[in-house]
Amino acid sequence: MKKISLLGATGSVGTQTLEVIREHADQFSVAALAFGQNIDAALPIIHEFRPRLVSVKNKQVADQLRIQIDSGIKLVYGVEGMIEVASATDSDMLVNAVLGSIGLEPTLAAIEAGKTIGLANKETLVTAGHIVMQRAKESGVSVLPIDSEHSAIFQSIQGQDRSAISKLIITASGGSFRDLKREDLEKVTVNDALKHPNWSMGAKITIDSATMMNKGLEVIEAHWLFHMPYEKIETLIHRESIVHSLVEYADHSVMAQMGLPSMLVPIQYALSYPSRMKSRLTKPLHLSEIGNLHFQKVDTCRYPSVSLAYQAGKEGGTMPTVLNAANEVAVHAFLKKKIAFLDIERYVEKALEHHQTVHNPDLRTIEAVDKETRVFVADLIN
Ligand SMILES: NC(=O)C1=CN([C@@H]2O[C@H](COP(=O)(O)OP(=O)(O)OC[C@H]3O[C@@H](n4cnc5c(N)ncnc54)[C@H](OP(=O)(O)O)[C@@H]3O)[C@@H](O)[C@H]2O)C=CC1
Ligand SMILES: CC(=O)[C@@H](O)[C@H](O)COP(=O)(O)O
Ligand SMILES: [Mn+2]
């Protein structure tokens, strides 16, 4: 029985992780879980999966939840609470599906505690990839990708000569506005932005997908996960989201992983790795029904977020931290209808221009820069 600690249990990836655990209840259980404030969604989860430990966003949510759950369940809160969940003594693996760079410290705690990491929370690697991967290496801990593109790359390098990889090609749907011209983006609404053509996901990543900052974040995520220089990471628009990413080798052979768009596949693969398990929850891919697959170069004038992410990633140091923090604040403001869609990348660009890179930053510097950037962008917005 593999015992899981799950961060972000009430979210899109979190609930799908629970679906996989439910389907394979003879193999997986939930030792501990964390969520933010959605008590209505959390209560049935807690009753069904009976974790020993639960963490919530803050004391107020903890006080509300306390009277509604079994008194035998330990209840904690805040980042400290997530750290306790991530490093719970009775769990074997952390699935990190919380939203944002708040997932960094719990990830580091889980690494220190020797837990295998299943990582959906890409912001953690964007903000401090050098620290996470170095500590994982030192502790002999595996960081298994859950993000679909990175799972595809991971699956495409199994059993291969990794020194012969010449290129990673990360596919992108193009997001909600892929059929609009740039000038049409001035007046798009939050509701329109939330209509992803292929995936049903949380609000923040759906907006990231529309700006294609999601692809930018994924380039940086791939850089750290696969130790690949930015010059060898490409992005490619693929409307159907069937080819989840590709790896080109020195002999020009290209390996890809395909499947109907469902996060259940990469989640299950991370949980069962290195084995593969049957899935009754997902459907087989019939290419004859799909008919055609389309691929198209990414136009970085149309999607400047991709260029901003490459620039920040290549600059390194604290620059990706700024990229991520500025983006988190700007996307939140867009979702709250305080700024327009195109303002998201404007604010990110301003934050990057304003920042003086600190090279090889330690954790404290990362956290300070993350905070400063959030204040900087919030001040611009207000
Ligand atoms: N959704 C997807 O298909 C994919 C997502 N990812 C990545 O996975 C991560 C999660 O995405 P997604 O599932 O879409 O996000 P959701 O918004 O659906 O879920 C976020 C989860 O994080 C919890 N949370 C938010 N803030 C806090 C906090 N301060 N303390 C504790 N918990 C908190 C939420 O709790 P609550 O709602 O209860 O407040 C919720 O459980 C992101 O990094 C995303 O980029 C990667 C690939 C695909
Ligand atoms: C499912 C997943 O991994 C998302 O990151 C998804 O890839 C978003 O789609 P885009 O390709 O539109 O960014
Ligand atoms: Mn992805």
UniProtKB/TrEMBL annotation:
Metabolic or biological pathway: Isoprenoid biosynthesis; isopentenyl diphosphate biosynthesis via DXP pathway; isopentenyl diphosphate from 1-deoxy-D-xylulose 5-phosphate: step 1/6
GO molecular function: 1-deoxy-D-xylulose-5-phosphate reductoisomerase activity
InterPro entries, alphabetized: DXP_reductoisomerase, DXP_reductoisomerase_C, DXP_reductoisomerase_N, DXPR_C, DXPR_C_sf, NAD(P)-bd_dom_sf
UniProt KW keywords: Isoprene biosynthesis, Magnesium, Manganese, Metal-binding, NADP, Oxidoreductase
Family per record: Belongs to the DXR family.
Recorded catalytic activity of this chain's protein: 2-C-methyl-D-erythritol 4-phosphate + NADP(+) = 1-deoxy-D-xylulose 5-phosphate + NADPH + H(+)
Keyword Transferase: no
EC number: 1.1.1.267
Domain DXP reductoisomerase C-terminal, chain residue ranges per copy: 258-374
Stated name of the protein: 1-deoxy-D-xylulose 5-phosphate reductoisomerase
HAMAP family, alphabetized: DXP_reductoisom
Free-text function comment from the UniProt entry: Catalyzes the NADPH-dependent rearrangement and reduction of 1-deoxy-D-xylulose-5-phosphate (DXP) to 2-C-methyl-D-erythritol 4-phosphate (MEP).
Enzyme class (EC, first level): oxidoreductase
Transmembrane segments: none
